[in-house]
From TrEMBL:
A single cellular component GO annotation: Golgi membrane
Protein's UniProt name: Protein unc-50 homolog
Membrane topology: Multi-pass membrane protein
Pfam families in the record: UNC-50
Keyword field: Membrane, Transmembrane, Transmembrane helix
Family (UniProt): Belongs to the unc-50 family.
Keyword Membrane: yes
Organism: Lingula anatina (Brachiopod)
Gene from which the chain derives: LOC106162505
Length: 278
């Protein structure tokens, strides 16, 4: 009679061993795959954003106008809606360029007022408008947003390397939010008083009034920037972004004491920029 040897089956994995094996197996590949997916998603978001930049019918101008109003009334509500966007669309930055387009229209309108006050011709007005929109607002905005984006991700993230970082688009949105009150105060509200400030630029009342508007405008910029980054739950010590306020107040007191007229300096700078051959 032929005998058969019974072979025992291989031991079944214990609970948790399969998961451990899969984690060990994919530990070297998952970060790369997740990074690639993140880059592709970011590229797709940028493409959709710039694609909608020339499609006015797809923009929500009513919501953007609401944000502009509440940046003066209650800026906390604006950033609360940024948190809702993160929950619904998985991104902090705006996906609708309506706010940027409305801001561009506001800059065009204020440029007309400055051209009338400064006595600029049509071509100088076009040059002035291009400078204000593409250099002062967008160009400087990209530079300032890059600085805040780097500082926030390098020094303010609570737990680094956990996939939590400040989106560059969000940093640029924070700049736009903070820039809008500066535009309204210095380019719109101050506009009717420009002739008085320039004609009497050495009088106390002139530079006191103008420099006070500068203090309020720059203070608004610092405060709204602080609100923007403090709204991110993974950032720590965002209060450090309020530190320029003390230096701003000291600089304002010195300007009153020495008679510096910032509005006059701004108008002279605009004159030089427009009449310069470069």
């Amino acid at each position: 009679m032929q005998s058969y040897t019974k072979t025992s089956p291989p031991p079944s994995p214990q609970p948790g061993e399969a998961t451990l094996y899969m984690n060990m197996h994919t530990s070297h590949t998952s970060p790369t795959m997740s990074q690639r997916c993140s880059d592709l998603a970011l590229s797709a978001k940028k493409y959709r954003y710039f694609k909608r930049l020339f499609k006015f019918r797809q923009m929500d101008f009513e919501y953007a106008f609401w944000q502009m109003i509440y940046l003066f009334i209650a800026p906390q509500k604006v950033y609360r809606n940024f948190q809702y966007r993160k929950q619904t669309k998985d991104q902090w930055a705006r996906d609708d360029p309506a706010f940027l387009v409305l801001l561009g229209f506001c800059l065009c309108g204020s440029s007309i007022g400055f051209a009338l006050v400064l006595g600029l011709g049509f071509f100088n007005f076009l040059k002035f408008t291009i400078w204000v929109i593409f250099v002062d607002c967008i160009g400087m905005g990209l530079l300032v947003a890059s600085i805040f984006w780097f500082v926030a991700n390098r020094y303010l993230v609570a737990i680094p390397n956990r996939g939590q970082e400040v989106e560059f688009g969000y940093a640029f949105d924070v700049h736009l939010n903070a820039f809008f009150p500066v535009l309204m105060i210095l380019h719109v509200f101050q506009l009717p008083f420009l002739y008085f400030i320039n004609a009497n630029h050495q009088s106390f009342l002139s530079y006191f009034f103008g420099n006070t508007l500068w203090l309020v405008a720059v203070g608004y910029y610092v405060y709204i920037t602080f609100l923007g980054y403090s709204a991110l739950p993974f950032l720590k010590k965002a209060q450090v972004l309020l530190s320029p306020m003390m230096g701003l107040v000291i600089f304002y007191i010195l300007s009153i004491a020495f008679g510096w007229n910032f509005t006059r300096y701004l108008c002279n700078f605009y004159h030089y920029r427009v009449w310069s051959p470069y």
